[in-house]
Design the sequence.
């Protein structure tokens, strides 16, 4: 039995692999077994030390026991002659830490030259690594690798616990992991393009192809390639976030909006609407519905007439984003429950947050 938790430092280009970083932290913290022995350390989430440190990420790494590196295409911002990720790798080497390395993609072409040089250095150092396509491939490998390190390096006898660990909860809910028989043509790719541009994933929109766009969505767990090679199919999370009409497949994935004259519902609402579509568009449709059915008094300030809102639009938008992101999508019998917090799909919540709606500004 471990007398402490082993700190696992997750190293990667932060912006490029943000979704994977959050997913790894989630799957470890939600594992009854791994959460007992380990904790994932994301440098950007660590509290400020209050001390003046030239390279605080190395100071943070110094407090950790296991080093996990995830590589993709980008090298990261160069500081002096190397990126922070490259410096973290070399520092872990000097400390002789247990090292786990994961590389996205089966081929090395297309990576930045400095990334290829970094990758060659890793191979020259003799490290074994695992390749993966997306987070659904990555997360099981992370779990198996951590268990092996705990067993072989720190001599923890956790074999039996691995078999019988109770209460195991996956970060990705069963709802969002469903691979649907729904072609990617049912997704609003124009919304996907706007979202990926907003989070800095698309660097050259003029050269963007449909295949490239879908591959970016695959990397974020929203679509998967058809096993028979017939193109892309939507995950449930992708259908909800980007589906043109997700309620066609999941009746609970819609919003029923009613407006009443008083504070109590009555059989004859003054306005009604049924809203379905990509999550970001649903947000704006609900906000518009609220604005249409609330008061907007005129106030005279000097010589100007100003139209006021009974409820500030930004506050209404934040409330709707929270409701959509945190509702229980598992329960098909509750199409109206947009305020439940039992099991929100993690991809939907992250996508809405990355879209920028929770920052009270419309992208």
Sequence:
């Amino acid at each position: 039995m471990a007398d402490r938790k082993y700190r696992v430092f997750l190293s990667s280009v932060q912006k490029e692999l943000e979704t994977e970083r959050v997913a790894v932290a989630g799957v470890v913290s939600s594992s009854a077994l791994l959460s007992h022995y380990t904790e994932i350390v994301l440098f950007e989430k660590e509290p400020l030390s209050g001390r003046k440190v030239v390279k605080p990420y190395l100071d943070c790494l110094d407090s950790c026991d296991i080093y996990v590196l995830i590589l993709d295409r980008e090298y990261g911002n160069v500081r002096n002659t190397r990126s922070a990720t490259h410096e973290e790798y070399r520092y872990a080497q000097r400390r002789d830490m247990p090292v786990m390395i994961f590389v996205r993609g089966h081929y090395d072409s297309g990576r930045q030259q400095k990334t290829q040089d970094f990758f060659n250095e890793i191979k020259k150092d003799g490290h074994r690594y695992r390749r993966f396509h997306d987070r659904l491939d990555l997360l099981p490998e992370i779990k198996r690798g951590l268990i092996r390190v705990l067993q072989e390096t720190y001599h923890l006898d956790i074999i039996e616990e691995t078999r019988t660990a109770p209460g195991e909860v996956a970060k990705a809910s069963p709802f969002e992991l469903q691979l649907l028989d729904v072609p990617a043509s049912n997704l609003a790719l124009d919304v996907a393009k706007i979202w990926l541009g907003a989070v800095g994933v698309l660097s050259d929109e003029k050269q963007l192809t449909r295949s490239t766009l879908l591959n970016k969505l695959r990397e974020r767990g929203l679509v998967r390639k058809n096993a028979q090679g017939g193109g892309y199919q939507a995950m449930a999370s992708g259908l909800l976030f980007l589906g043109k009409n997700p309620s066609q497949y999941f009746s609970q994935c819609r919003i029923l909006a009613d407006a009443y004259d008083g504070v109590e519902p009555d059989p004859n609402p003054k306005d009604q609407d049924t809203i379905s579509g990509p999550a970001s568009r649903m947000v704006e449709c609900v906000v518009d519905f609220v604005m249409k059915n609330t008061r907007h008094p005129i106030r005279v300030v000097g010589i100007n007439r100003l139209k006021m809102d009974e409820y500030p639009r930004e506050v209404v938008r934040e409330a709707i984003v929270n409701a959509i992101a945190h509702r229980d999508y598992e329960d098909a019998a509750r199409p109206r429950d947009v305020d439940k917090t039992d099991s929100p799909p993690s991809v939907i919540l992250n996508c809405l947050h990355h879209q920028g709606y929770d920052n009270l500004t419309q992208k």
About this structure: Confidence is low (pLDDT under 50) at residues 160-171, 334-344, 353-363. Residues 135-152 form the longest helix (18 residues). The first strand starts at residue 6 and ends at 11.
